[in-house]
Amino acid sequence: MSAEPAFLLHRKPYRETSALVDLLTLNNGRIRAVAHGGQRPGSKSRQRLQPFTPLFVSWRGDRELKRLTLMESRGQTALLAGEGLLCGLYANEIATRLLPLELPAADVFAFYTALLEALPKPAERALGLRRYEWALLESLEATPRFCTPEGHMLDPQTRYRFDSQSRAFLPSGQGLEGRTLRYIEQGDWDHVGLANALKSVMRAALAPHLGSTALRSRELMLAMARRRQP
Fold first, then answer.
1. d(Cα 35, Cα 25) in Å, to the nearest integer?
2. How far is Cα 148 from Cα 126, in angstroms, rounded to an integer?
3. Which of 6, 41, 102, 103 has the least CB density, counted as fewest CB within 10 Å?
4. pLDDT at 1 over 70
């Protein structure tokens, strides 16, 4: 097959000198493949297979586990540090957890690419993550329905909580205002004061698909936040 743009999501040792990798590709979504020599010190495969590096890859195989036949760099590695790095690790981790193998996800790829450009910029980081999370939910056909489970419109004055079974919103005294949820539905994500509500909705919508195992990247974020506390 011809070379395809890709990013490395996850890598682990495989047998003696190879690596088992998950890649996010432009046309084929997430693929899992063996990179021969991917763990050998000094090998070109190991040098190229780095997180946040734009790649061209090709592979062979009809089964779920492919064999990489080409790995070439197609650009500069995103230089991430601190919170930006942890957000990048989070983006990789949730894609590895959520995307079924070989499910086409061109929008996810596009928003991932945009996210890597946003992560070094603190002011753009949160919104880039939310748009990427939304693209993942869309690929799973799991985006929230901004209505009640019965299909009724949300009352701007009423508070609601997300119901994972219906993907809709139930009245709740401790939830988010219907007015706020309407802003999110309209895509008006730059609205002042919306960041925390948007994060809350995304986390609730993603949770049923991530399973019960804690995200390693989220644990690292919490540890960083605790270290910052006086």
1. 15
2. 27
3. 41
4. no
Residues sharing a CB contact under 8 Å with residue 73, sequence separation 6 or more, in sequence order: 48, 53, 54, 55, 56
Q: pTM for this one?
A: 0.93
For 141, residues 6+ apart whose C-beta sits below 8 A from its C-beta are: none
In a domain, 56, yes or no: yes
pLDDT tens for 26-61 read 999 999 999 987 777 767 777 888 999 999 999 999
Cβ-count burial of 12 within 10 angstroms (0-12 exposed, 13-18 middle, 19+ buried)?
A: exposed
Say what the pLDDT of residue 15 is: 83
21 and 32 in contact (C-beta within 8 Å)? yes
Domain that holds residue 17: 4-73
pLDDT per position as a tens digit, 78-98: 999 999 999 999 999 999 999
Q: Is residue 224 part of a domain?
A: no
Q: How far from each other are the two terminal CA atoms of the chain, in whole angstroms?
A: 55
Contact 39, 14 (CB under 8 A): yes
The CATH number of the domain holding residue 32 is: 2.40.50.140
- Any residues with CB less than 8 A from the CB of 203 and at least 6 apart, and which? none
> DSSP string of 10-34?
EEEEETTTEEEEEEEETTTEEEEEE
Rounded CA separation 175/146 (Å): 14
What is the rounded CA–CA span in Å between residue 50 and residue 158?
47
